[in-house]
Write a structure and sequence with these properties.
The complex is a heterodimer of chains A (about 260) and B (about 300). Chain A is α/β, with parallel strands linked by helices. Chain A has 5 helices and 15 strands. Chain A is globular, with a radius of gyration of 18 Å. The longest helix of chain B is centred in the middle third of the chain and has 14 residues. The chains are: A alpha/beta (about 260), B alpha/beta (about 300). The structure holds flavin-adenine dinucleotide, flavin mononucleotide and FE2/S2 (inorganic) cluster.
Chain lengths: ~260, ~300
């Protein structure tokens, strides 16, 4: 069950170009939330728009939870200016979470999709589960984690200004040189082209792959039916409900690569 | 102070929540005090389950949103099996919203609901969904069809019968009168306003269906005008809705002639809005010496 909690901002900082991390004191939600789940944020008390802003949680510590976000519009612009102590109305935990770590996880994030991957990284670490982490971006300025191949942490940049040159597929290829990919499972969240590329890669190589999708959400709790994604066609009844289209907020945000028709939502 | 009657049904307050913005009541568990609402109107239920329209289905607009959900819902049979038991346990009044694509659809759905063991006290009939070819608009834009459908439904139920009207018509008064002549207990107004969104960067429309329904505070003035038009010609009560986001908005609708109101899109921001505003409404009554909030109904000074 999800809760509505009036949280308090306990810190905000710019961690990379146009990328911010904020921590919110929200003990009830922080105690329940798992890596991959998200919260739905009312950026301010007098928010003039009709939708909250969904954000994946990037970690928890004590009664605090943190989020990592890129400033792309009014909501995130407002969030970056949150001062410590400000009250923020949030709903969570929402959606499903990363699970099933029997195979060696290769966790892959990029763009606004780094938050749930970062949370997963720390969850796996706390469970002492060996895994690889890949973060992709266009240039070095967008990175805030050290490229450290010995610790199985790989950064990629499109322009080669940091870490491995190329996209995240190039990083997975370097892992494939030493590691049989059929013993691994991919966990992916990032911009649509990146997720689509990883989906194709996983299906082509027959590797298990879970992908966290993103789309516009009005309610976040399965009411409005607006956050739909389309499943790969299965045998379908003439009339059906949630067989052709799933709801990202409830059935996801995490789906199996082989059931997603397209990551472009 | 806030208690109101519609037909012979008593509601704890005139505040209810609108179809499609509150699901079937169970989704907001932990987030809202459902039992303190005057009532809830369910998501539209159809004869068969519906998968809804292709995506994208929603887009934000200034002070509002566009949707073209296409009546995605479980269908009446699953509704009776899965949703009704939860609704039966609620202490608030439940109104089931029915949508259909043909007379047969509407009537069969109602017949199944009448047979089911539901505690619902009435029906709201959606003849005004702009988002599907078969969304009932064929009924909602025609006086003849509205009256005919209302009459047939009236024969099949003694529960409250509320016809939900569209603002996307030349004369909402004529459709309202047709519903009244057909035997409706009330009308609700308005459903969403036809709108369109464009993404300049992509040179594309924002909704797959091109056109969708606009809701939220952006449509409040349109809703008020339609409620007031209906108030001037109808003798049956009106449930007003469209963009309500505060206690003051509720008072505006009552002044325009609403007997009750529904809150829609604002539930997405605050699922407990319908309860949060109750105290302010009571305070208003106290401060203005009203024994009941409906003493305000239609009391616009000229
Ligand atoms: C389940 C889920 C989890 C999410 N987690 C995160 C997260 O951890 N960090 C994060 O930064 N964002 C995340 N997002 C995306 C985030 O919700 C949006 O970026 C946010 O709503 C934008 O709000 P805004 O008011 O700032 O921008 P808006 O005014 O809504 O949008 C401004 C412009 O940015 C575009 N835009 C909207 N969303 C995105 C996007 N995701 N990426 C790029 N452009 C976009 C819009 O099309 C528009 O042109 C998540 C979304 C979902 C559904
Ligand atoms: C996402 C969404 C789904 C809706 N679904 C239905 C529906 O199934 N049946 C119906 O009669 N009205 C539906 N409506 C219309 C609302 O009940 C209401 O008439 C309209 O949104 C105007 O009120 P508001 O501005 O307060 O939201 C829907 C509205 C939205 C935004
Ligand atoms: S956001 Fe409303 S159903 Fe998912």
């Amino acid at each position: 069950m999800s809760l509505r909690e009036i949280s308090k901002v306990t810190g905000s900082r710019e961690i990379a170009e146009n990328t911010f991390e904020s921590t919110l004191h929200a003990p009830q939600i922080a105690a329940m939330i798992k890596a991959g789940q998200f919260i739905n944020i009312l950026p301010s008390g007098d928010w003039p728009k009709v939708m909250r802003r969904p954000m994946s949680v990037s970690g928890t510590e004590g009664g605090n939870l943190s989020i990592i976000y890129k400033v792309v519009g009014d909501g995130t612009e407002y969030m970056r200016s949150w001062e410590n102590g400000v009250e923020v109305d949030i709903i969570g935990p929402l959606g499903n979470y990363w699970e099933d770590f029997d195979k060696i996880p290769i966790i892959i994030g990029g763009g606004v999709g780094i938050a749930p991957i970062f949370f997963l990284h720390n969850t796996l670490k706390s469970k002492n589960l060996d895994h690889y982490m890949i973060m992709g971006s266009r240039t070095a300025d967008e990175h805030f984690i050290e490229h450290d191949p010995d610790s199985k942490i790989l950064m990629t940049t499109d322009d080669g200004s940091y870490g491995i040159k190329g996209n995240v597929v190039a990083a997975v290829d370097t892992i494939a040189e030493k590691q049989d990919l059929s013993d691994t499972k991919l966990f992916v969240c990032g911009p649509a082209p990146m997720m689509e590329a990883m989906k194709d890669y996983a299906l082509d190589k027959n590797i298990e792959c879970d992908i966290a999708l993103e789309t516009v959400m009005a309610c976040g709790i399965g009411i409005c039916q607006g956050c739909s994604m389309e499943y790969v066609p299965k045998e379908q009844k003439a009339s059906s409900y949630r067989e052709k289209y799933g709801l990202v907020c409830m059935d996801g945000p995490i789906f199996k690569a082989n059931e997603i028709k397209t990551c472009y939502l | 102070m806030l208690e109101v009657k519609l037909g012979d049904i008593t509601f704890a307050s005139p505040i209810t929540v609108a179809s499609g913005t509150y699901g079937y009541g169970n989704e907001v568990e932990g987030l809202a005090e459902v039992n303190r609402l005057g009532g809830i109107v369910t998501k539209s239920v159809t004869r068969q389950p519906r998968e809804g329209n292709p995506l994208p289905r929603i887009a934000e607009t200034p002070s509002g949103m566009l949707n073209s959900i296409g009546l995605a819902n479980v269908g009446v049979e699953l509704y009776c099996k899965e949703k009704l038991p939860f609704l039966n346990n609620l202490k608030t009044q439940v109104i089931v919203n029915i949508a259909g694509s043909s007379m047969k659809d509407y009537l069969e759905t109602m017949e199944i609901l009448e047979e089911a063991n539901g505690n619902h006290i009435g029906y709201e009939i959606n003849i005004s969904c702009p988002n599907v070819k078969e969304g009932g608009m064929e009924f909602g834009v025609s006086c003849h069809m509205t009256e005919k459908l209302t009459k047939e439904m009236r024969k099949r139920t003694s529960k409250l019968l509320i016809m939900k009207l569209s603002p996307n018509v030349t004369s909402i008064e004529e459709i309202g009168m047709a519903a009244q002549d057909g035997g409706a207990d009330a009308v609700s107004a308005i459903n969403t306003v036809v709108g369109m969104g464009i993404d300049v960067k992509k040179k594309s429309v924002k909704l797959h269906t091109v056109f969708g329904g606009l809701s939220g505070p952006a449509i409040k003035p349109i809703a008020l005008a339609n409620v007031h038009k209906l108030y001037k010609v109808l003798s049956i009560p009106i449930m007003g809705l469209g963009g309500i986001a505060s206690a003051e908005d509720v008072l505006e609708f009552i002044l325009a002639g609403s007997h009750m109101v529904q809150i829609g899109t604002t539930n997405y921001i605050n699922p407990n809005i319908g309860v949060d505003i109750l105290q302010e409404l009571e305070d208003y009554c106290t401060e203005n010496g009203l024994k009941n909030i409906l003493e305000l109904k239609g009391q616009l000074k000229s």
